[in-house]
Design goal:
Pfam family, one: Metallophos
Shape: globular
CATH topology of the largest domain: Purple Acid Phosphatase, chain A, domain 2
Number of helices: 8
Structural class: alpha+beta
Cofactor: Zn(2+); Fe cation
Catalytic activity: a phosphate monoester + H2O = an alcohol + phosphate
Largest sheet: 8 strands, mixed
Distance between the termini: 80 Å
Oligomer: single chain
Bound molecules: fe (ii) ion
Protein name: Purple acid phosphatase
Strand content: 25-35%
GO molecular function, one term: acid phosphatase activity
Number of domains: 2
Helix content: 10-25%
CATH superfamily of the largest domain: Metallo-dependent phosphatases
């Protein structure tokens, strides 16, 4: 009897421990080393660093690099392996950065493509065959979300976990390669992400690590803009630093934390025009991504987003944005619906997810007491999954890299604002703010 009591007590004690270690107090170990990429000999015309991105209704942009400057920017594709019923020709570019000269960077738009369909494709009529799956036309649709990736042992772990999830589109709120002026590191990053990024569209926006600006010598975003061309033209933007796209029933706006954002800026005016185009009957969900968080209770990067928030938060609020994802802070934090620094049932949920696994390590210190808008915060590497089930309901989960296992550590059902009454309530404000000259 006594033995049974001891055993029960021990079980309860172990249960308490196991519950405790999965709470928000859990703190990850040290950063991992930057990965080494042994040099591999490939024919100069072979495609490298293949990645795809959405490029307007039913179209996809295929991007890759060749060492051979005469290699054609041609993609052959079809729905059966080795049998290509269609072909498209695109454009190419290259850039110089100090003593570095990039390979030939190809961007070729293919389509129209069927929804939710596997395509097999070949780049530049050389090298291996790749395959991609197009997103569905309607719900459900799933997004993988991870920012501040870098290329370390933790990045590898995060990418392996994302690969296990059945997702349609990857959303990356800035800070991709952490090349930090070492241009060949953009090439190794491209190779590292190719297995995932050649199979599902990767939609990215820029972070501070994409800038690589050197006064008098190098303009900003040279590598990022040349390599990661996003559908800016397709969405009426004049800059690769901000754009929008639609997938299934979701309108997604990628903002640029490092482009001008004041009321007279091109980005601000483009954002107003883009919000006015959103039809919530067609796209009931409205998402925004940007790099520097507006709601952040971590001590890292405190108040850095304040200027942009002051300029643009009223627009996002008036338009009833559902969710805002950001990166920059190397940790995870989820807010309640919030606006103007106060909980507000008609404001967006803000999620900071700059925890992809870069070489700088985690941002471990939080401000206390926790602000009333903050629901969950934790300094761990990981990734998020947003499964939008229908016009009104989405399931968000955050998966911590628990050593090398993905562990679901935060999860919540989110209801969209589309049927909440917020849209009707704010319709006057929406017109006033968005239609102002
Ligand atoms: Fe950053």
């Amino acid at each position: 009897m006594e033995l049974k009591l001891v055993s029960t007590t021990l079980t309860v004690f172990l249960l308490i421990i196991s519950v405790t270690v999965t709470t928000a107090d859990y703190v990850r170990p040290q950063p991992r080393e930057t990965l080494q990429f042994p040099w591999k000999s490939k024919p100069h015309s072979y495609p490298q660093q293949v990645h795809i991105s959405l490029a307007g209704e039913k179209h996809m942009r295929v991007s890759w690099i060749t060492d051979d400057n005469s290699s054609p920017s041609v993609v052959e594709y079809g729905t059966f392996p080795g049998r290509y019923s269609s072909m498209a020709e695109g454009e190419s570019t290259s850039y110089n950065y100090l003593f570095y000269t990039s390979g030939k960077i190809h961007h070729t738009v293919i389509g129209p493509l069927e929804h939710d369909t596997v395509y097999f494709y070949k780049c530049g009529q050389q090298g291996p065959e790749f395959q991609l799956k197009t997103p569905p036309a309607q719900f459900p649709v799933t997004f993988a979300v991870a920012g501040d990736l870098g290329q370390t042992g933790w990045t590898k772990s995060t990418l392996e976990h994302i690969d296990l999830c059945k997702y349609d589109v990857h959303l990356l709120p800035g800070d991709l390669s952490y090349a930090d002026y070492m241009q060949h590191r953009w090439d190794t990053f491209g190779e590292l992400v190719q297995p995932l990024a050649s199979a599902r569209p990767w939609m990215v926006t820029q972070g501070n690590h994409e800038k690589e600006y050197i006064p008098l010598l190098q303009g900003g975003f040279a590598s990022y803009n040349a390599r990661w061309k996003m559908p800016s033209e397709e969405s009426g933007s004049t800059s690769n630093l901000y754009y929008s796209f639609e997938v299934a029933g979701v309108h997604i706006i990628m903002l640029g934390s490092y482009a001008d954002y004041d009321k007279h800026s091109d980005q601000y005016n483009w954002l107003k025009a883009d919000l006015l185009k959103v039809d919530r009957k067609k796209t009931p969900w409205l998402l925004v991504l940007l790099h520097v968080p507006w709601y952040n209770s971590n001590e890292a990067h405190q108040n850095e987003g304040d200027g942009m928030m002051q300029a643009m938060e009223p627009l996002l609020y008036a338009a009833s944005v559902d969710l805002v994802f950001s990166g920059h802070v190397h940790a995870y934090e989820r807010s309640n619906r919030v606006n103007n620094r106060r909980p507000d049932s008609c404001g967006p949920v803000h999620i900071t997810i700059g925890d992809g696994g870069n070489k700088e390590g985690l941002a471990r210190k939080y401000k206390n007491p926790k602000p009333d808008w903050s629901v969950f915060r934790e300094a761990s590497f990981g990734h998020g999954e947003l499964k939008i089930v229908n016009a009104t309901h989405a399931f968000w989960s955050w998966h911590r890299n628990d050593d090398d296992e993905p562990v679901r550590s935060d999860q919540v059902w989110i209801t969209s604002l589309v049927n909440s009454g917020c849209l009707a309530e704010k319709s006057h404000e929406f017109r006033k703010i968005l239609m102002a000259p």
